[in-house]
Amino acid sequence: MCCIPQRLGQMDICKGVVSLATAAGAICLLYKAIRAGIKCQPPRCSASPICIARLAVEREQHGRDSGELRRLLNSLECKQDEYAKSMVLHSITRCVYLLESEASACTNDDITLVGSMLDDKDNSVKIQALNTLKAFSGIRKFRLKIQEHSIKVLELISTIWDSQLHIAGLRLLNNLPLPDFAHPQLRRVMPALMEILQSDYTLAQVQAARLLSNLAQKNDLLYDILNCQVHSNFLNLFQSTQPGSLLLEVLVFAERLSEGRSSPHYRAVKWHYNEQSVHEAVFGDDSRLADRLLALVIHPEEDVQIQACKVIVSLQCPQDVGVWPSCPPSHSCFSNAE
Fold first, then answer.
1. Interhelix angle 123-136/82-98, nearest 10 degrees
2. Among 15, 69, 99, 183, which residue has the least CB neighbours within 10 Å?
3. Where do the Armadillo repeat-containing domain residues begin and end (predicted)?
4. Cβ–Cβ < 8 Å for 267, 223
5. Cα 74 vs. chain centroid, distance in angstroms?
6. 173 with 165: CB under 8 angstroms?
7. What is the spatial distance between Cα 70 and Cα 68, in angstroms, rounded to a whole number?
8. Domains in the chain, please, with CATH?
9. Spatial contact of 107 and 139, defined as CB atoms under 8 Å apart
10. pLDDT in 10s for each residue of the chain, 338 residues
11. For 326, which DSSP code?
């Protein structure tokens, strides 16, 4: 019994030694980690937005090219997986926006290289390639070269149902003057554009409405738009509950259609329309567009109010009539009560 306290004391001493050793080891490891962290320089991640922005600032300060954009374009020619290609294209897009002189120094071969990515099997690569072409389209000398890809872009947005791809493709098309050789393809994809307009993704709808407004000003495409088949609830696009950005674009679209169909060039021909066409939904005898427009005159957003009034005026006064105040009432789409 007398040995028990002595042994307990020895055990306490042993535990203390072990604790001290453990603490010393932990401190040593912590010291090594801190020391390694101080000595270690962070890896150069030139593809990150922060690094690219830093390069842009350095270029402006020192008056020289960073070479970053050229390096990225060269790397795009190497064999890479889909994720790597998407990231490289994303970085190229940022470089084009940030490194103006380097982007202007690129060549049509670079545009061709980026355009070839539209044939990639992965949709994310296609989307990033569209974004990159959109960035390059801000440089005037590349627009003609980028126009060569317009047929492919129209094919993509009409055959792949992906909202992000639709947005990227339509943004690109809206930033380019579409060439006449694209008009036959535009006629073929008109139903797809109408479907996107009637989808439930606002950003894609806005871009589709913007493109259709531009196309409605083309004499050889106006009938194809007006005769395009739409859903029975097409006029829901003009409901006051829709986002203001979408309302503004569809109202511009309606104004362009109204102006186009009232032009002497268009009225010189007697056209026939499908029952479920845009023309019947917007301008037909049973159309309720007038009700929608009158409701939008008191919309909270002033831009929407003004555009709704413009559509009303365009409906009441065809373009071949002289001064608006003298427009005969027979041309009005609104009843006297309205």
1. 10
2. 15
3. 67-263
4. no
5. 26
6. no
7. 6
8. 66-177 (1.25.10.10), 186-317 (1.25.10)
9. no
10. 545 455 545 555 545 544 555 555 555 554 554 454 434 343 344 545 556 556 555 664 566 678 899 999 999 988 889 999 999 999 999 999 999 899 999 999 999 999 999 999 999 999 999 999 999 999 999 999 999 999 999 999 999 999 999 999 999 999 999 889 999 999 999 999 999 999 999 999 999 999 999 999 999 999 999 999 999 999 999 999 999 999 999 999 999 999 999 999 999 999 999 999 999 999 999 999 999 999 999 999 999 999 999 999 999 865 544 333 334 433 444 544 34
11. G
Question: How many Cβ atoms sit within 10 Å of the Cβ of residue 260?
Answer: 21
Distance CA 242, CA 250 (A): 10
Count CB-CB contacts under 10 A for residue 317. 20
- Residue 231 near residue 280, CB atoms below 8 Å: no
Decide: helix, strand or coil at residue 75: helix
C-beta of residue 127 within 8 angstroms of C-beta of residue 164: yes
Angle of CA points 122, 80, 168, to nearest 5°: 35
Alpha helices (runs of H) in the chain, residue ranges in sequence order: 3-39, 49-62, 68-76, 82-98, 100-104, 108-116, 123-136, 143-147, 150-159, 163-174, 183-197, 202-215, 219-226, 244-261, 264-267, 278-283, 289-296, 302-316
Looking up tokens 């409701």, which residue turns up?
Answer: 295
Residue 211 amino acid letter: L
Q: Which of 22, 42, 15 is nearest to 30 (CA)?
A: 22
In this structure, what is the dihedral angle of CA atoms 81, 86, 92, 96, given to the nearest 10 degrees? 160
CA distances from 53 to 46, 65, 76, 271, 276 (A): 10, 13, 20, 55, 51
Structure tokens at 212: 């259709």
Q: Which residue has the tokens 């993509």?
A: 156
